[in-house]
Amino acid sequence: MDSYLDTLARFNDVINEFVWVKVGIILLIGTGILMTLLTKFFQVTHCRHWWQKTIGSLFDTKVISHTNDRASISQFQALCTALAATVGVGNIAGVSAAIMTGGPGAVFWMWVAAFFGMMTNYSENILGIYYRRKNHEGEWSGGAMYYLQDGLGNYPHMKGVGRVLAILFAICAMMASFGIGNMGQVNKIVINFTSAFDIKPLSSRILYSSGESDVTLYMLVVGLVLMVLVGFVVLGGLQRIAGVAEKVVPFMVVLFVLGSVIIIVANFKGIIPAFGAIFSMAFSKQAAWGGATGVAFKTIITQGCKRGVFSNEAGLGSSVMVHSNSNVKEPVKQGLWGIFEVFADTMIVCSMTALTILTSGVIDLKTGATDTSSDATLVAEAFNTLFKYGRFEFGRIFIALAILVFAFTTILGWSHYGSKAVEYLAGSRAKSITRIYKVIFVLMILSGSLMTSSLAWDISDTFNGFMMMPNLVGVIAMSPVVVKLTSNYVDRRIKGKDIEPMVSYDPAIQAEHAKAIKETGED
């Protein structure tokens, strides 16, 4: 058995290396650069506009108020649900892993990748809205599988190719939802929570031992509690997931950023040296590699995070599945939230994590060396430089709670992604099959709390890579549509031209929504 697992691990490593390193990074960054050029640096030239239409519109009831339409959720709920899946353990352990791998200069490359990733996420979102349709329950369904099937598949002689790529994406999305979106997150919660809040009667009771670690009664109890909590939310459907996300996500992001700011301000003398190290070490071979892994790899939750983290998911094609549920009619308006999503995840949350580490003195700014061996522990040590009183390590406790909340909301977001993938694959039987999937998804949480092997996470990472590749092929193939939608929006909304709105590939939806936009002057 051990021999079989070793062979499987080596085989997976070869595929993973090819998918992510030899192809993935080039395709990922290349797509971001292409869409940035084709849209004429939209994220910069129209920065004021997308800022006003996203964070600047949070007091607009059309944006934040709940909708009575069961087919959709509000724009803000869509953002929060997407952020629930993207703002996760990766923002803590992933950034730390990137710095530990590539030194302070890795942060610079995370910023670069995020800058171009804004337009990748933007493009995914507007394609998701443009090619979405109603499902068996009257909800909007959109995602890479639909713009691959109906977009790429509409090109001459490409119908079969589009359909195959759509199925491949959906299968990998479903598989990834069980690994990285479920068991990996649960495993990280259990390990950190049981370590930070030790209860001897539970942690001393060993259920079984493996070659890597012991599984205790405490881990089982935490897993059962998580299973009940996640089950209550996930089995309640999209509306309940979105309702939890819009309450928890803003709170957790603000609290984590606030804690980071306190550390940074307390160590203000280290701010200039930190930025100096980021830029001076940005072009070393070590830093470029560390930054690339820190941004281009999706959240790989193994015991200690085997690699860096793909924090904002731009290019993966996952978050577009929930953005497509927005009550927005204008594709580009939801695309603007995609730009903000990457900005909030990487430019704000990940940057706060990085500066907390670099200003606190837990890492050598000149060499990138540190005495800490664990990525999550590195952030905890940074917080402990200020929030530690004698034996009471409040920094470690804070990070354990942050990982718990971040990972919990990631599970909720990925449950929706997986259900949408299953819905696409199931076709006419989608309603019953999707319910079965949700039950299995909830039950798998218990497995995540008791697993000790990292192989499951490595395989899930490979599925993430297989998700990314067809999605990016679809974005590149449909780039002319992205350009047309963007030009149409800019001409109407910014330049004030009286032209027909482009809102859907479906003639019936196009006519209905275009009429509504013209009559109200807004969507």
Short synopsis of the structure:
Helix content is 70%, strand content 3%. The protein contains 22 helices and six strands.
Question: Order of helices and strands, N to C?
Answer: HHHHHHHEEHHHEEHHHHHHHEEHHHHH
The coarse overall form would be globular
Helix content: over 70%
Count of spatially separate domains: 1
| Total count of helical runs of at least 4 residues | 22
Computed CA radius of gyration, to the nearest angstrom: 22 Å
Return the structural class.
Answer: mainly alpha
CATH topology: Amino acid/polyamine transporter I
- CATH top level? Mainly Alpha
Tell me the distance between the termini. 58 Å
In percent, how much strand structure appears in the residues?
under 5%
How many strands, what sense, and barrel or not for the largest sheet?
2 strands, antiparallel
Q: What spatial order of strands do you see in the largest sheet?
A: 1-2
- Quickly give the CATH architecture: Up-down Bundle
Strand element count: 6
Low-confidence stretches: 292-310
Mean pLDDT: 78
Written account of the structure:
The chain is mainly α and 523 residues long. The protein has a single domain (11-57, 80-494), classed as Amino acid/polyamine transporter I (Up-down Bundle). It is built from 22 helices and 6 strands. It has helices spanning 2-38, 42-45, 47-53, 61-64, 75-86, 93-102, 106-130, 144-149, 159-196, 200-203, 217-234, 238-266, 271-280, 285-296, 320-323, 331-360, 375-384, 394-426, 430-450, 455-477, 479-494, 507-520; strands spanning 133-134, 140-141, 206-209, 214-216, 388-389, 392-393. The chain has a two-stranded antiparallel sheet. A hairpin with a 2-residue loop joins β5 (388-389) and β6 (392-393). The longest helix has 38 residues, at 159-196. The protein is globular. The model is unreliable at 292-310 (pLDDT under 50).
